[in-house]
UniProtKB/TrEMBL annotation:
Species annotation: Bellilinea caldifistulae
Pfam families: 6PGD (PF00393), NAD_binding_2 (PF03446)
Any single GO BP term: D-gluconate metabolic process
Domain 6-phosphogluconate dehydrogenase C-terminal, residue spans: 180-469
EC number assigned by the record: 1.1.1.44
Name of the featured protein: 6-phosphogluconate dehydrogenase, decarboxylating
Residue positions binding substrate: N103, S129, G130, G131, H187, N188, Y192, K262, R289, R447, H453
Oligomer and partners: Homodimer.
Keywords: Gluconate utilization, NADP, Oxidoreductase, Pentose shunt
Length: 471
């Protein structure tokens, strides 16, 4: 039997479906999992494409692979990956390729890349987005690390990646060391922001206009035919249309309002602080999930503070239109923050990120795929050194046109006592970014008062300190 072209260690949902994807595209696959039952299921379950081989040990898995060996780890992030690397190293040879396709922290990938390079092993830290369906039918792939390994892997990864409407594969070499996992981390941060913004649009329409899930499903379905067309809007319409089998009522109304998180959004917010990138929409999305988990506290607080708001006297159709425009504007502002963070990180970590390529490979397969990404790709292709997406003519004109709708929706939400932290943060980001002068002069004066931190002046060069209490 011919040796396998790709090996997979880890047959969870993502590893299992990626394996099927490789098979369907004609690649010979060998698999191993700590649970022999999962190996048996993968090998024996009917599937299109090549016949896979199952290994009973890591050593056997490596022996099944043609040289240079290509081994994909699909394991939980953290110590599990480090242990797997140590377990498999004795069986690898210089020139072999080890790929980490999990949601690993980028600094771990930086470290592993250097560690394995010293042993002659090529390392690829690869972000994979698209969920289980994407893994099976075509994900967006973000490989970073060894460029030599990328050249070898490119035909395989191109074959299994999602294809955009123009036929282009949603995969590209991202950059050295942990660049691939860094980009996936920020992708997930943008995803957090997107989901929170959609939830806020849903909440405003639900509470202000009293619309039910079925009506809201129809609205989101309509929105998916225009500028908001995206995977997340599409599935929102489907979620809202789903009925509970037991009650016949909308299922979403029975789901507990506690949003969980796996950590990538939090990593994005934390790293943004480290490198000095402003991502307030992502920050708001992260803390909104934290607040949602405080269910018992929120229930208690609701009995103390209650909820009263003036009756809404506006036109319902006008509000629906305004929410649609507010959602699109705040979505643009959120992407602008994420792309600006990637630009700053590229310089900070010497990753050499190509922002046009990143937007291009997110157009299909991944969770944040949206028609908006075609315009973002075009903006960065036209101006590769663009400092901020908002400075491109298309997006500056669009946000300028829609900003009043965003203001209107935020004001109505505040008046009605509805929390819209992500929309509010997007608007505040816009207003701060477009302000020639901010009140930071007062903050710097305060810092100099209590800590002699000094300040600079707008009318002359130099660094100054004032004894503020002297007359």
């Amino acid at each position: 039997m011919e040796q396998a072209e790709i090996g997979i260690y880890g047959l969870g949902v993502m590893g299992f479906n990626l394996g099927r994807n490789f098979q369907r595209n004609g690649f010979r696959v060998a698999v191993f999992n700590r649970s022999p039952e999962k190996v048996r299921l993968f090998v024996e379950q009917p599937a299109a494409g090549t016949q896979p081989r199952g290994a009973a040990s890591l050593r056997e898995l490596v022996q099944m692979l043609e040289k240079p060996r290509r081994l994909l780890l699909m394991l939980p992030a953290g110590k599990t990956v480090d242990q797997a690397i140590e377990d498999v190293l004795p069986y690898l040879e210089p020139g072999d390729i080890l790929i980490d396709g999990g949601n690993s922290y980028f600094m771990d990938s930086d470290r592993r890349s250097q560690y394995l390079a010293e042993k002659g092993i090529h390392f690829i830290g690869m972000g994979v987005s698209g969920g289980e369906e994407g893994a099976l039918w075509g994900p967006s792939l973000m490989p970073g690390g060894s460029q030599t390994a990328w050249q070898i892997l490119q035909p395989i990864l191109t074959a299994i990646a999602a294809k955009a409407e123009d036929g282009a594969a949603c995969v590209s070499y991202i950059g050295p060391r942990g660049a691939g996992h860094y980009v996936k981390m920020v992708h997930n941060g943008i995803e957090y922001g997107d989901m929170q913004l959609i939830a806020e649009a849903y909440e405003v329409l639900r509470r202000v206009l009293g619309l039910g899930a079925v009506q809201l499903s129809e609205i989101f379905n309509q929105w998916n035919n225009g500028e908001l067309k995206s995977f997340l809007i599409e599935i929102t319409a489907k979620v809202l249309a789903k009925t509970d089998e037991e009650t016949g009522q909308p299922l979403v109304d029975f789901i507990l309002d506690e949003a969980e998180q796996k950590g990538t959004g939090k990593w994005t917010a934390q790293n943004a602080l480290d490198i000095g990138a402003a991502v307030p929409t992502i920050d708001a999305a992260v803390y909104s999930r934290i607040l949602s988990a405080m269910k018992a506290e929120r229930q208690h607080a609701s009995t103390i503070f209650g909820h009263s708001a003036p009756a809404f006297t506006g036109n319902g159709e006008d509000l629906i239109r305004a929410v649609r425009q507010a959602l699109y504007a705040s979505k643009i502002l959120s992407y602008a923050q994420g792309m600006a963070m990637l630009r700053i990180a590229s310089a900070e970590y010497d990753y050499g990120l190509n922002l046009a390529e990143l937007a291009r490979i997110w157009r299909a397969g991944c969770i944040i795929r949206a028609s908006l990404l075609n315009d973002i790709t075009a903006a960065y292709q036209a101006e590769p050194d663009l400092q901020n997406l908002l400075l491109s003519s298309y997006f500056s004109e669009t946000v300028n046109r829609l900003q009043q709708s965003l203001r209107k929706v935020v004001m109505i939400a505040i008046e009605q006592g509805i929390a819209v932290p992500a929309m509010s943060a997007s608007l505040a980001y816009f207003d701060a970014y477009r302000s020639e002068r901010l009140p930071a002069n007062l903050i710097q004066a305060q810092r100099d008062f209590f800590g002699a931190h000094t300040y600079r002046r707008i009318d002359r060069e130099g660094v100054f300190h004032t004894r503020w209490e002297e007359q």
